[in-house]
From TrEMBL:
<dbReference type="GO" id="GO:0052324">
    <property type="term" value="P:plant-type cell wall cellulose biosynthetic process"/>
</dbReference>
<comment type="similarity">
    <text>Belongs to the COBRA family.</text>
</comment>
<keyword id="KW-0325">Glycoprotein</keyword>
<dbReference type="Pfam" id="PF25079">
    <property type="entry name" value="COB_C"/>
</dbReference>
<feature type="domain" description="COBRA C-terminal">
    <location>
        <begin position="157"/>
        <end position="183"/>
    </location>
</feature>
<dbReference type="InterPro" id="IPR006918">
    <property type="entry name" value="COBRA_pln"/>
</dbReference>
<dbReference type="Pfam" id="PF04833">
    <property type="entry name" value="COBRA"/>
</dbReference>
<dbReference type="InterPro" id="IPR056900">
    <property type="entry name" value="COB_C"/>
</dbReference>
<dbReference type="GO" id="GO:0005886">
    <property type="term" value="C:plasma membrane"/>
</dbReference>
<feature type="domain" description="COBRA C-terminal">
    <location>
        <begin position="197"/>
        <end position="322"/>
    </location>
</feature>
<keyword id="KW-0732">Signal</keyword>
<dbReference type="GO" id="GO:0010215">
    <property type="term" value="P:cellulose microfibril organization"/>
</dbReference>
<protein>
    <recommendedName>
        <fullName>COBRA C-terminal domain-containing protein</fullName>
    </recommendedName>
</protein>
Length: 349
């Protein structure tokens, strides 16, 4: 996340500062109710929020009036927000202008830590909409803000369950993955006083991701992914799912989700981003897709849980995964299932 502030001449001999927020994170959004930005400058501890989408046209500037910021990889056009403020006694030359201090960014809660403002040379140039006029800023600063789920002190927001065609057992989300049912103080109640309002489940996660190994062909294998929304107060209109699995370098078909390869390690492609719309809560509030992978003989196996994902993220947050020993136990029945099927066929013949 980069915050860019540029100061130039305003109207009537005053000055104006244009502040832009760039969400360079590939798959983390800033969701409703939106961001707020603060710093220490001429006035102590101001806090700024974006204008609403219905703001009159004569009060808007480019990239304003969104409130939320989408991730750069999913929607780069909506990953930038800007606003303009009038500046008072901030200095009269490039050498006397003082940089803002102590930037804070909430999106909408804590989690972002911002560094010191760094001067950018040459300063920003602003081009008018008709392209006939260019305005040179006196000075431009950049501030980089980094997100940490540890700093945010957030409970997990998603969990993963697993199943396969070769085992009748379904490995559910670990109990109390995101919280526990509040049935001690209020028996029969699973409702927390804190948002989001999550429906009563053993895992108490707003989002559950289910990975099902569906079919095994001679040269391909097939996976079904289901994302279920258990949050009664949230429609995830711009969600994304990041999945890490070593066979993503040979994915051939994604049947309903949008897919983008992330290539976090350059030549090694083991991570993909999936995205779609999820607007309903509850058991009917789910979206599904199937992925078709080409087998790589050098690594493909159903043994020791290889067919299951290594890590899954929903909207940038790491999801709670089942324990590794459960994955191993689920895959150990594969040889038994195959030999049983062969024996049955031989008896029929």
């Amino acid at each position: 996340m980069v915050v860019a502030a540029s100061e130039d001449e305003g109207g009537l001999g005053g000055k104006a500062a244009v502040v832009s927020i760039y969400n360079y994170q590939k798959y983390r959004h800033i969701q409703a109710p939106g961001w707020n930005l603060g710093w220490m400058w001429a006035k102590k501890d101001p806090t700024f929020v974006d204008l609403l989408p219905g703001t009159p046209y004569n009060m808007q500037i480019a990239n304003c009036c969104k409130g939320v910021l989408n991730s750069w990889l999913q929607d780069p056009v909506s990953a930038v927000a800007s606003f303009q403020i009038s500046v008072g006694r901030s200095g009269t030359t490039n050498y006397t202008v003082k940089a803002p201090l102590n930037f804070t960014l909430k999106a909408p809660g804590p989690g972002y830590s911002c560094g010191v403002a760094q001067e950018v040379k040459p300063p920003t140039k602003f081009i008018s909409q008709d392209g006939r006029r260019t305005t040179q800023a006196h000075v431009t600063w950049n501030v980089t803000c980094m997100y940490s789920q540890f700093v945010a002190q957030r409970a997990p927001t998603c969990c993963v369950s697993l199943s396969s065609f070769y085992n009748e057992t379904i490995v559910n989300c670990p109990q109390c993955s995101c919280g526990c049912q509040n049935n001690i103080t209020r028996p029969g109640s699973c409702t927390s006083s804190l948002a989001p309002l999550v429906q009563c489940t053993p895992h108490m996660c707003p989002i559950r991701v289910h990975w099902h190994v569906k079919l095994n062909y001679r040269e391909y294998w097939r996976v079904k992914i289901t994302v279920t929304n258990w949050n009664c107060r949230m429609n995830y209109s711009q969600w994304n799912l990041v999945v890490q699995h070593p066979n993503f370098d040979k994915v051939t078909t994604i049947f309903s989700f949008n897919y983008k390869s992330l290539n976090p390690y350059g030549v090694i492609n083991d991570t993909g981003m999936l995205c779609d719309l999820l607007t309903v809560a509850g058991p009917d509030g789910n979206v599904q897709s199937e992925l078709l992978f080409r087998k790589d003989p050098s690594m493909f196996t159903f043994d020791k849980g290889w067919a299951f994902p290594r890590r899954i993220y929903f909207n940038g947050d790491s999801c709670v995964m089942p324990p590794p020993d459960v994955l191993k136990a689920s895959s150990l029945v594969l040889p038994i299932a195959i030999w049983t099927a062969l024996l049955f066929l031989s008896l029929r013949m």
